[in-house]
Amino acid sequence: MHIQSLHIYPVKSAQGIDLQTAQVKPRGLAGDRRFLLVKADGGFITQRQYPKLAQLCTRLIENGISLKWPEQDWTDVPYPSHNKRIQVTVWRSSVDAAHVEGKINAALSAWLGQPVSLVFMDKDAERLANPKWTPKPSQVSFADGYPILITNTASLTLLNNHIINTGGEALGMDRFRPNIVVDCDTPWAEDNWKSVQIGDVILDLVKPCTRCIMTSIDQKTGEKHKKTALAALKNLHPSTAPDNPGVLFGMNAVPRTIGEISINDKVTT
User: Fold this and answer.
1) Per-residue pLDDT reduced to its tens digit, 90-119
2) Is 36 in a helix, a strand, or coil?
3) Residue among 236, 118, 135 nearest 195 (CA)
4) Which positions ≥6 away from 253 have C-beta within 8 Å?
5) Per-residue pLDDT reduced to its tens digit, 202-240
6) According to the model, what pLDDT value does residue 135 have?
7) N or C: which end of the chain has fewer CB within 10 A?
8) Residues 39, 222, 214, 265: is their CA dihedral positive or negative?
9) Closest among 126, 262, 117 to 181, alpha carbons compared
């Protein structure tokens, strides 16, 4: 097996960036989900409420990121000072995040039709993955729950064959917003991987990933489609664990060791 592709999502729920090489850090791939959009009360927002966030393009620049969306050209967003901070909420987590100031918040608010602010997870911010699933305390970014999401090409092939055979159209892997896509010949093999090693990097797979309505959103246009993936996964890959209900695609992982990984690197289990 080998790495087929690598992806980060600098702003949670915005478009991703494809990488050739990535640095695995304790919180996940460097640059992944370190920025977050929040409402006035500090609650986070995602494509679940605002599908058009799929149209928010991101790119990395020196000392920050740049953002672009329909009718708005690229706007540079420097990493904020750690001095101004606000409490934000991501699921069950409360995080003391650095607040991004400037015109970017007004522009994003106008586009979304909702007052929002951009925040950044700097070195002073702390968030831990759910201890129920992690053997020891594990840092995490603004990802839904765990530092890294791993998916398997064979699982997508099986899923798409089912969708096509039932009259639907094949889905891209981007619907599942993975960090590491492993080229593998066996569908759902990832269910049985306790850990994977990529060069000097070891990742422990801790929890099957339950999927949500975001799989029905086109990750380029923000257009909502039928719940094709969820319906297919209900037949193909439902969870049998009472403490992790739903349908499954991919595995959440935490780094045991950190380092650099690249496309085509060998993956061993």
Assistant:
1) 999 999 999 999 899 999 999 999 999 999
2) strand
3) 135
4) 146, 147, 148, 149, 150, 196, 203, 204, 205, 206
5) 999 999 999 999 999 999 999 999 999 999 999 999 999
6) 85
7) C
8) negative
9) 262
Q: DSSP 3-state assignment of 98?
A: strand
169: phi then psi, degrees, rounded to nearest 5: -110, 145
Residue 102 tokens, joined: 């400037």
3-state SS assignment for residue 136 = coil
User: Is 251 a residue whose pLDDT tops 90?
Assistant: yes
Q: Which residues contact 165 (CB under 8 A, 6 or more apart)?
A: none
Q: Is the pTM of this model over 0.85?
A: yes
**Size (the chain), residues:** 269
Q: Are 83 and 77 a contacting pair, CB within 8 Å? A: no
Residue 58 has pLDDT above 90, yes or no: yes
